[in-house]
């Protein structure tokens, strides 16, 4: 059996690996010259079941509304005439009830925990190096009111089996000494000892080499011109490098999956949400954090990768625009300097912006499509790094006629 995987991000490469491990001939197609060159390139780097909350919550509509006049909001809505954005936002709002938020968070948590276990197994079995730190993560609160809300919300994850610990301000500094200078601004934190961090780009490219050794073919710099199909089957993928035909196809193109699928008659409920990241070098002069974490009041995440320190923030609804300017990173940099004043060389920023492929529920779309030989592994949102191995295994199981190891209710094409 020959399978073509469309997309060489972390989810696509992981899918290629698991399919090849089942004895399939696999070809991966991507428009970029190297794998992990888009959403997986410079993401937050956290593997974080302890932060599996869905973005669609009762507080989200108010944040989006305020963002129309206040650019400092963590969720930012940029008005544009794209009808697909408004259709997506309407579905997102329908998921912002307390009941839907709890259900979607619970589903995300099951998937994220399952996926992390597979990532750990794969990392060990293949000796993959990606600046991994597996000593937990901190979810930081600036005041008692937000800390109280965090404690209430964490019960959803605790009920799902997550081990979470409450730390007061002094306990936070004891767990992460690099936060000592920020102690006056910290009310407390939730510590998840099982969360991790690591460079998703490094992981994806290391796994690409394992895939190549296992016989997987990568066709890079290949722009998809059209997908040839009849009513029931995909016949070929036509690229600027020629047509590629296979027995099965997996759509793993992140935010671009809806564009590729639309001519086939699909209206995938996925919309790009722009995120910003900045990475700084560190050396012996600096005191970077040893643990990854999130400033929950500002929704700024951080993670250390060897001699680099990265901060990520913002969820901006602005279509497929990935442009950015230094001013876009101002609020993030203020948080970075306040939390870790000696954390890195802040005069040498490496700015980046990428698109998260979000569904209204926050869970991905997996498995069978309306075409007999087209399968979906897309819509991972801001948790693609955490979910990648799990969704790859799930899709592989479905393609091989096996029941997935976890319940994927709510994660299939509807």
Look at the structure and give the mean pLDDT.
95
Question: Compute the gyration radius: what is it?
Answer: 21 Å
Question: What is the helix tally?
Answer: 10
Structural class: alpha/beta
Shape type: globular
Q: What gap, in angstroms, lies between the N and C termini?
A: 27 Å
The description of the largest β-sheet is:
9 strands, mixed
What's the helix-strand series? Answer: EHEEHEHHEHEHEEHEEEEEHEEEEHEEEH
Taken as a percent bin, the fraction of beta residues is 15-25%
Helicity, as a percent range: 25-40%
Number of strands: 20
Query: Which ranges are low-confidence, i.e. pLDDT below 50, for 5 or more consecutive residues?
Result: none
Description:
There is one protein chain. The longest helix is centred in the first third of the chain and has 29 residues, at 98-126. β16 (300-305) and β17 form a beta hairpin. This protein has helices at residues 10-21, 60-67, 83-94, 98-126, 144-159, 169-175, 200-213, 257-261, 330-339, 384-399; strands spanning 2-6, 25-29, 46-47, 75-77, 137-141, 165-168, 188-192, 196-197, 217-219, 224-229, 234-239, 242-244, 248-251, 271-281, 292-295, 300-305, 308-317, 350-358, 365-368, 374-378. The protein is α/β, with parallel strands linked by helices. The protein contains ten helices and 20 strands. α1 (10-21) packs parallel to α10 (384-399) and α4 (98-126) packs across α10. Strands 4, 5, 6, 7, 14, 15, 16, 17 and 18 form a nine-stranded mixed sheet that branches. A six-stranded mixed sheet has the order 9-2-1-13-20-19, covered by helices on one side. A three-stranded antiparallel sheet has the order 10-11-12, with no helix packed on it. It starts with a strand and ends in a 15-residue tail after the last helix.
């Amino acid at each position: 059996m020959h399978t073509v995987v469309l997309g060489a991000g972390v989810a696509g490469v992981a899918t290629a690996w698991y399919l090849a491990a089942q004895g399939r001939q696999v070809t991966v197609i991507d428009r970029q010259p190297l794998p992990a060159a888009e959403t997986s390139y410079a993401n937050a780097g956290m593997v974080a079941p302890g932060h599996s909350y869905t973005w669609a919550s009762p507080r989200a509509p108010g944040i989006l509304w305020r963002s129309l006049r206040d650019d400092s909001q963590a969720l930012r809505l940029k008005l544009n005439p794209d009808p697909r954005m408004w259709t997506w936002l309407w579905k997102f709002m329908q998921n912002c009830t307390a009941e839907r938020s709890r259900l979607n968070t619970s589903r995300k948590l099951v998937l994220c925990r399952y996926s992390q276990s597979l990532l750990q197994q794969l990392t060990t079995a293949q000796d993959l190096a990606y600046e991994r730190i597996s000593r937990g993560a901190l979810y930081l609160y600036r005041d008692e009111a937000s800390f109280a809300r965090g404690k209430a919300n964490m019960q959803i994850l605790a009920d799902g089996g997550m081990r979470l610990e409450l730390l007061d301000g002094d306990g936070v500094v004891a767990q992460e000494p690099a936060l000592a200078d920020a102690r006056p601004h910290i009310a407390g934190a939730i510590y998840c000892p099982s969360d991790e961090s690591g460079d998703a780009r490094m992981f994806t490219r290391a796994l690409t080499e394992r895939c190549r050794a296992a016989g997987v073919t990568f066709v890079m710099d290949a722009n998809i011109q059209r997908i040839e199909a009849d009513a029931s089957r995909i016949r070929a993928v036509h690229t600027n490098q020629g047509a590629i035909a296979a027995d099965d196809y997996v759509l793993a193109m992140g935010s671009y999956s809806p564009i590729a699928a639309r001519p086939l008659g699909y209206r995938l409920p996925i919309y790009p949400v722009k995120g910003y990241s900045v990475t700084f070098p560190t050396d012996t002069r600096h005191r970077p954090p040893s643990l990854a974490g999130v400033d929950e009041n500002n929704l700024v995440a951080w993670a250390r990768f060897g001699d680099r320190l990265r901060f990520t923030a913002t969820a901006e609804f602005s279509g497929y625009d990935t442009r950015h300017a230094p001013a876009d990173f101002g609020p993030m940099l203020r948080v970075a300097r306040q939390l870790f004043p000696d954390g890195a060389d802040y005069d040498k920023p490496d700015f980046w912006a990428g698109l998260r492929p979000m569904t209204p529920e926050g869970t991905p779309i997996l498995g069978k499509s309306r075409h007999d030989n087209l399968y979906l592994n897309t819509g991972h949102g801001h948790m693609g790094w955490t979910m990648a191995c799990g969704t790859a295994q799930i899709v592989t199981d479905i393609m091989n006629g096996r029941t997935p190891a976890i319940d994927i209710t709510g994660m299939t094409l509807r």
